[in-house]
Design brief:
Elements lengths: L4 H16 L1 H4 L10 E2 L24 E2 L3 E16 L2 E8 L8 E4 L3 E8 L7 E4 L15 E2 L16 E2 L1 E6 L6 E7 L5 H6 L3 E7 L1 H4 L9 E9 L30 E2 L2 E4 L2 E2 L2 E5 L2 E8 L6 E6 L5 E2 L1 E6 L2 E9 L2 E3 L4 E7 L8 E6 L8 E9 L22 E12 L4 E4 L17 E9 L3 E5 L4 E6 L13 E4 L4 E8 L4 E7 L2 H5 L3 E6 L1
Parallel strand pairs: 1-14, 3-6, 5-12, 8-9, 13-18, 17-26, 27-29
Antiparallel strand pairs: 2-3, 3-4, 6-10, 7-11, 11-12, 13-15, 15-16, 18-24, 19-20, 19-23, 19-25, 21-22, 21-24, 25-26, 27-28, 29-33, 30-32, 30-34, 31-33, 34-35
Bound molecules: copper (II) ion (CU).
Length: about 500
């Protein structure tokens, strides 16, 4: 039997785990399908001491009538995340999060990325309606200068030497998008080291609403990390150089959880706010952690979130939540109204899904009164919904763990760039039925979809246009997507990055 490359690596990885943990081979110690906490090896800082940083907005190197051009170098750098400790990061322009790209619907962005890391990188604009050659297919590597001994086998891979220009047409609605690394087999460790940032797309419809703006519009990139004794981000990679064997210590193949929550790269920061409404663009950029967000005023009272947007832009109408469950890669665009609180109030953004350090996220301190003319309109957006009766086919995808070979699978199969798993026709609508064994945040490239049903009824966090849907153990969702705009090969996958790296990914080709 020919052992495919993937399977070979899987066996190699597990053999490594077995060597480390002798009981593993005898069947006493199994790889764990649950995400697992990797504790920091340095003392954790006090929360709510550091002001919330806001990532800088990237400046174009050129702008002409229809396009803005940007140049970014991805490189290693040192960040001061914990007091008195240097942390080595990998960053877009050497910062974490990367600089925010501000884009406008209908106006092209050309992003030249240079790779100054010792490993290949891939850039994916998450939520982008992007042509295949710029989408960041996992084998479309930007190699380090001087080349790299490739371990992949994909005859269709588009390899670039040291740099590549990605073109984003922005022919889609305003939305909070984000960019991040998508290198095959290594996305988890590379994002963990810092390769992620915001891409905020605006349009006239969004600009025309009387929502809070400027310094009352705040992007919040939330992620968990752990720190090693030398201050670096701790991660259980089998090969810390990320140049050889992929995969993690088998105990962490269910996902890596950190014990420090960073918002825009700062641990448990605080933000001084006016007694006014704020627009928060919340992104969960964690590898594997879900958050149940709540804004706690006291031990018993919470401030509601008014959701105005989802992954794919504005909702039709605002939606009030007392808690928001956000899985990796999802975005929630919310309005929070601090105006009814007395000056001096402290509002803590907590994570009700965790105890201990990961149970809190950041704090808002109401320190000043200011005029606030913003409001939340009853109608936010009018968009043409896709209709279920337009669907030409229903496809079923099962996302589950294989105990037989200790890997994450879609319809029983590991990711293989050479296998096509679905061929939707251009300009047609399909229903995909997604079913899961454990928690999986599932993401499709290219499209935004509507959630028709989530284990029998609409989920509370599925409103609007989604590109990632969070499914719990044993759940099923029907999603409706229209495949338009581009022909070509794309991936869909679990956005728990350890699941993704360990094969829970598949291909579709729009034909
Ligand atoms: Cu998963």
């Amino acid at each position: 039997m020919k052992l495919r490359r993937r399977e070979f690596l899987r066996h190699a990885a597990l053999a490594g785990a077995g060597a480390m943990f002798p009981a593993f081979e005898s069947g006493c110690l199994h790889p764990r399908p649950e995400a697992r906490l990797l504790p920091s090896l340095v003392p954790l800082p006090e929360p709510f001491q550091i002001p919330l940083p806001i990532p800088p907005v990237l400046k174009p190197v050129r702008s002409d009538a229809g396009a803005d051009s940007y140049e970014v170098t991805i490189r290693q750098a040192t960040a001061r995340i914990l007091a008195g400790i240097d942390t080595t990061i990998w960053g877009y322009d050497g910062i974490f999060p990367g600089p925010t790209i501000e884009a406008r619907t209908g106006r092209r962005v050309c992003l030249l990325l240079r790779n100054a890391l010792p490993v290949p990188i891939v850039n994916h604009l998450h939520g982008g309606h992007t042509a295949p050659e710029s989408d960041g297919y996992p084998t479309d590597l930007i190699l380090p200068a001087g080349g790299f001994p490739s371990h992949m086998h994909d005859p269709l891979a588009r390899l670039a030497d040291a740099e590549r220009t990605y073109t984003y047409e922005n022919d889609q609605r305003a939305a909070t998008l984000w960019y991040h690394d998508h290198r095959m087999d290594f996305t988890g460790p590379q994002v963990w080291r810092g390769l992620a940032g915001f891409y905020i797309l605006r349009d006239e419809e969004d600009d025309g609403l009387p929502l809070p703006r400027r310094d009352r519009e705040i992007p919040l990139l939330i992620c968990d990390r752990s720190f090693d004794t030398d201050g670096s981000f701790r991660y259980p990679a089998l090969d810390r150089s990320l140049r050889g064997t992929p995969g993690v210590d088998a105990r962490y193949m269910g996902g890596v959880l950190g014990d420090v929550v960073l918002v825009n790269g700062a641990p448990w920061p605080k933000l001084e706010v006016a007694s006014a409404k704020y627009r928060l663009r919340i992104l969960n950029a964690s590898n594997a952690r879900r958050y149940d967000l709540a804004l706690r005023i006291s031990s018993r009272a919470v401030l509601p979130f008014v959701q105005i947007g989802s992954d794919g832009g504005l909702l039709a109408q605002p939606l009030t939540h007392h808690t928001i469950r956000i899985s990796p890669a999802e975005r929630f665009d919310v309005i929070v109204d601090f105006s009814q609180l007395p000056l001096g109030s402290k509002v803590t953004l907590v994570n009700q899904a965790a105890d201990g350090p990961a149970g809190r996220i950041m704090r808002f301190d109401v320190t000043r009164g200011e005029r606030d003319e913003s409001r939340i309109p009853e109608t936010l957006s009018s968009f043409a919904a896709v209709r279920p009766e337009d669907a030409v086919i229903t496809r079923v995808f099962d996302f589950s763990y294989s105990r037989a070979d200790h890997g994450w699978r879609i319809n029983g199969k590991p990711y293989d760039p050479e296998r096509m798993d679905a061929r939707p026709k251009l300009n047609t609508t399909e229903i995909w039925r997604l079913q899961t064994d454990f928690n999986h945040p599932l993401h499709l490239h290219l499209v935004h979809f509507q959630v028709l049903g989530h284990s029998g009824r609409p989920g509370p966090f599925d409103a609007g246009w989604k590109d990632t849907i969070d499914l719990g153990p044993g759940q099923t969702a029907n999603i409706l997507a229209r495949f338009a705009g581009h022909r070509g090969r794309y991936v869909f996958h679990c956005h728990n990055l350890e699941h993704e790296d360990m094969s829970m990914m598949a291909n579709f080709e729009v034909v």
